[in-house]
Write a sequence for this structure.
């Protein structure tokens, strides 16, 4: 089975045995058991703000607020010959669902693993859409 990463511009390392740290809401430790290669491009979805609402005032700054977003563009999925499954961002997966696209080939990362400095180094599992 061919799996490729189309998120973050890098490979994704898979860890087993990592332990959840509730203080940082991430996983630590474990052993790297696999690497999902970067597919050479990131898949993205672009949103367009809808109706402008009343701005929020915070510390003397006016923050624009719009009603729910609508997806105005989504990059096409790679052909099945390129990969069987695609790791994508949660936003991309949500856009595909919102647009009624087939999502059975999409995966997102779950259970973020960090090193002692807090740098993200991988994931414990993948979520199938």
């Amino acid at each position: 089975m061919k799996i490729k990463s189309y998120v973050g511009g890098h490979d994704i390392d898979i860890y087993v045995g990592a332990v959840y740290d509730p203080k940082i809401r991430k996983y630590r430790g474990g052993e790297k058991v696999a690497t999902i290669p970067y597919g050479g491009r990131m898949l993205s979805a672009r949103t367009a703000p809808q109706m402008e609402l009343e701005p929020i005032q915070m510390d003397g700054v006016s923050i624009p607020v719009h009603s729910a977003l609508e997806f105005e563009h989504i990059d096409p999925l790679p052909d099945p010959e390129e990969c069987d499954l695609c790791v994508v961002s949660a936003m991309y997966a949500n856009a595909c669902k919102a647009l009624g696209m087939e999502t059975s080939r999409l995966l997102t990362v779950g259970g973020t693993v960090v090193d002692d400095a807090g740098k993200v180094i991988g994931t414990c599992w993948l979520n199938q859409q």
Remarks:
- The chain has a mean pLDDT of 94.
